[in-house]
Amino acid sequence: MTGLMVLALLAADPAPAQAVDDEASENGGEGYTPPQPTVLQALRFTGYVDVGFAAAQGNGSSFAPNDFRIPADYGVDPFAPAVNSRGEVASNDSGGRFVNGFMPRSVGAGGNPTFLINTASVDARFAPTQVPVMVFMRMQFMPRFSSAGNQTRVLLQQAFGKVNPFSNAEFSLSVGKFDSVFGIEYLDNEANIRTGITPSLIARYTTGHSIGAKLFYRIQLPALWSAISLNVAGTNSGTRIEELAGPDLSLTGVPVGSGRLGYELNLKAVQAKLGFSGLIGPRNDTRDVRSKQWAYGADARITAFGLTVSGELIHLVDEAPEGAQRALKQTGLGLGELITAFQVSGGYVQLQYAVPLTTDWLTGLALYGRYDRRNATFRGFSTVETERFTAGLRIELFAMLAIKAEGLFNRELGSVPTVPNDVFTSSVVFTW
Question: Which of 223, 325, 347, 405 has CA 20 to 30 A from 163's CA?
């Protein structure tokens, strides 16, 4: 144990870098070759702890007690009563009715207010300066309650290596398990980075992590204060979260292609990011390579004078094989689940204001509101139309402690049964 403590202190100690600066100054910067960093200096550990308190209306789910249509998850939006940045809900209890698996993870709270350890996250990064290679890994721990009692889920959320082969170009190639490249919301996946607490109603389709290869290239246009970027990936499951499509293995043997073409304007008082995204490939919830998924979307983020407006739109289609093969999934995990054609259109717009009141201890204060809309249809079933209004506050202290409070007001539209599923949630995030 003592040895581990010494190694950690050496890795965090800034003294070697200071010694290099002092010696270079004394030598006048001539004839001096700084020592190469050690392994410990190239290795860095960071992370955060997200502690929440949440309370949901009703039984914590979107399922109406007198709605007996099945599959039950085809007639409501079970993701609506989210309580944390992972998009987990207070409950996904369908009352014993059959569901087809398009379900979020649940914290098991039901309608009871409760404290939660939403996430304990640990990052390890190895980036030696003498070679253009970086290795990154993110492990996350989530204590949860289930019918089997208390248990802790351990997730290897990211694990990849990145190569930057050209010192004079913003070009990189990543291989492993990494963030999505579709849209912009994936940039706010982690609780310590996200201004608010909960993801949007369309985040389930754009913010997942999958295994494959990714290429990023950006070219600067200094005369126009602009940049153009291209982010493309070929992965096992595409850009959906793991609850909707398993990322760890390609069931068809054909990767899913996704990408985003972006434009950035970087003026002194105004910054803007615009992008167009696309996705195409086989569904990764069936072994039938003929069942395709495809999507397109647009996004924008504009910041000026402390005010940020961001938004995203997506249209996504899941195809299903025709005839007898339409009846059952060929997943290799057992029969009994329908493989149904599906399409969804949706988006969100968020307004955020950074209050210009900062001190040595108050390092950030933001107010925000978001409007979400989602229209989804499984073939042969009624359209599920939902909207959500979200309002919240974020206070940042000492640049390492964020305190957030948020209210979610869900509305069922059209033929969707009305159910009390609004949520109050809060989060305290310690970043280290």
Answer: 223
**Mean pLDDT confidence for 99-116:** 92
Does the residue 36 lie in any domain? Answer: no
pLDDT in tens, 307-330: 999 999 999 999 987 654 444 444
Q: Is the pLDDT of residue 406 over 90?
A: yes
Query: Residue 304: phi, psi to the nearest 5?
Result: -155, 125
CA–CA gap between residue 100 and residue 55 (Å, rounded) = 27
* Full domain range(s) for residue 427: 2-25+42-431
pTM, whole model, 2 decimals? 0.86
Domain contains 426: yes
Q: What is the pLDDT of residue 11?
A: 42
DSSP symbols for 313-379: EEEEEE----GGGGSS---SS-S------EEEEEEEEEEEEE-S---SSEEEEEEEEEEEEEEEEET
Instruction: Find residue 303's DSSP bridge partners.
Output: 271, 308
Q: Give the list of residues 6+ apart from residue 108 with CB closer than 8 angstroms, or none.
A: 91, 144, 145, 146
In the chain, how many domains are there?
Answer: 1
Is 32 inside any structural domain? no
Does some domain include residue 238?
yes
What count of other Cβ atoms lies within 10 Å of the Cβ of residue 415? 11
CATH number, domain containing residue 390: 2.40.160.10
- What's the pLDDT at 337? 56
